[in-house]
Amino acid sequence: MVQTVTDSEGGEVQPGEMWGFFSAEYLPDPAAPWGRFGLKSVKQESAVDGDTTVEVTITDKGVEVPLKGTGNGPIAAFCEALASHGVEVRVLDYAEHAMSSGGDAKAAAYLECAIDNQVIWGVGIDPSITTSSLKAIISAVNRAVREK
Q: What's the pLDDT tens digit per position in 3-14?
């Protein structure tokens, strides 16, 4: 999208515009929602040196759907939960960082996912690194569905 704007208009993209393009592509916007799926709630239970179980509520076309999955961590458990709903996701790469410091810091997670023979990135931002990771998976799935 940014390349198209700079090609058609010439010149540079300002930081605020860049954030707008980035947000529109990767992040949900309650004022202008896009995408089939949303993440409503997350509950996680982990055993030390054992599996992690997540119970999530997602929205699918606006309808709330409770899901549960188990894996070697919250990301794997979430992928299993989505698979039980017919959405196959494999996480290929993962990166995260804090967007600021302090008690009110937010975490950004970037996940490269394989979805329906596509390799696509998703981004999630949340105070919880776990929730930001799950939001990134939802972002990737929504982008994959949109790309079809």
A: 455 556 667 888
